[in-house]
């Protein structure tokens, strides 16, 4: 198949540091090429990809030092280029939410839109009713709940290359610098404060590798920064793929103490790739990703999370890696999307038009 992958422009593909969607796009594009398909990637010029790259901006928006920049203008320029080349592809796979909808209404049946974010947001319901002809992919079944009426074609869990993060058969022992890990973004919904409370409860060191977005600076200053003074807590800052394997592989467990309807949680499978178990709060996609008692523990409060630290230390790390390879590899993800692409090819234009006219 001839497949276009249309990435957001906020991060490089894959990201140099933090970044979820662009990382998934990178691994999906490479896996589709490895499966023998012709893949064209629309992204920034920094992309490292096995696909044919169409660079639509010189660098990723977030790390661009220019003081003034327009993410809207950059994405509209990219969509113009995608539209100009649309006839070259069997499927156009968008990862930019719904920004492309007004420009591709006449060929909606040849598009797939993966929604990567939370959907319990005002105005989304009306928009997805208005553009019901566009087929959608969710990244977890739980993600769909606020928009059950939407045109869902299927759910495809995220996947990563098995070679990205090396398997670590054993973490550091507690007597040899053992630690718990927190990886991701510092924000109210990610609840680093809970992770610190768990570490204090069990007396284990906690290493924090995370970024702080501008919108969360005040939260970080007022709530999190005072907690970092604890001698058990080591704040490393933002890290990229080159450092994640060592960081996650050395940990006894990854703490994933979310307080929001997490659409997927890529960091969970990054940890699983290293063989590291995850202690995750029972929110959003966590029960879909974790096998409780096998790849980690699903908990509801700080007390059960603290008890889970000892429990997960006895889990089979090789078995955790095996679950990652069986469920969350890039090849498995690509196969899931290929099934959706083939379903698109079998859906008639009349069916798309009928769906678009539904109330």
Automatic annotation (TrEMBL):
What residue range is the signal peptide? Answer: none
Q: InterPro entries recorded for this chain?
A: Glyco_trans_1, Glyco_trans_4-like_N
Domain Glycosyltransferase subfamily 4-like N-terminal, by residue range, is 18-131
Which superkingdom does the taxonomy of this entry point to?
Bacteria
- Span of domain Glycosyl transferase family: 172-312
User: Which SUPFAM superfamilies does UniProt cross-reference here?
Assistant: UDP-Glycosyltransferase/glycogen phosphorylase
Stated name of the protein: Glycosyltransferase family 4 protein
Q: Which organism is it from?
A: Novilysobacter erysipheiresistens
């Amino acid at each position: 198949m001839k497949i276009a992958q249309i990435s957001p422009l906020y991060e490089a593909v894959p990201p140099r540091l933090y970044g979820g969607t662009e990382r998934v796009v990178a691994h999906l594009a490479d896996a589709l090429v490895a499966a023998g398909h012709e893949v064209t990637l629309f992204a920034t010029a920094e992309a490292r990809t096995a696909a044919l790259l169409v660079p639509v901006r010189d660098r990723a928006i977030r790390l661009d030092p220019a003081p003034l920049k327009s993410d809207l203008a950059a994405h509209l320029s990219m969509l113009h280029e995608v539209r100009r080349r649309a006839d070259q592809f069997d499927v156009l796979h968008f990862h930019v939410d719904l920004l492309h909808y007004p420009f591709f209404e006449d060929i909606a049946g040849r598009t797939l839109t993966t929604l990567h974010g939370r959907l319990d947001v005002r105005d989304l319901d009306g928009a997805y009713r208005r553009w019901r002809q566009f087929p959608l992919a969710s990244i977890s079944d739980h993600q769909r709940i606020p928009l059950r009426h939407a045109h869902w074609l299927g759910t495809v869990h995220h996947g990563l290359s098995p070679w990205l993060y090396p398997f670590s058969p054993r973490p550091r022992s507690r007597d040899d610098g053992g630690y718990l890990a927190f990886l991701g973004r510092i924000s109210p919904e990610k609840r680093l404060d809970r992770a610190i409370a768990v570490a204090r409860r069990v007396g284990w060191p906690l290493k924090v590798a995370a970024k702080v977005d501008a919108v969360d600076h005040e939260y970080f200053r007022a709530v999190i920064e005072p907690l970092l003074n604890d001698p058990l807590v080591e704040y490393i800052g933002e890290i990229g793929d080159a450092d994640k394997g060592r960081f996650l592989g050395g940990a006894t467990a990854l703490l994933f103490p979310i307080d929001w309807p997490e659409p997927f949680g890529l960091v969970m499978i990054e940890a699983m790739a290293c063989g590291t178990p995850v202690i995750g709060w029972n929110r959003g996609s966590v029960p879909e990703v974790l096998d409780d008692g096998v790849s980690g523990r699903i908990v509801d409060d700080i007390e059960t999370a603290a008890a889970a630290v000892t429990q997960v230390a006895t889990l089979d790390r090789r078995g955790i890696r095996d679950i990652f390879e069986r469920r969350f590899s890039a090849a498995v993800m690509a196969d899931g999307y290929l099934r959706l692409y083939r379903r698109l090819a079998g859906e008639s234009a009349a069916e798309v038009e009928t769906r678009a006219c539904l109330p």
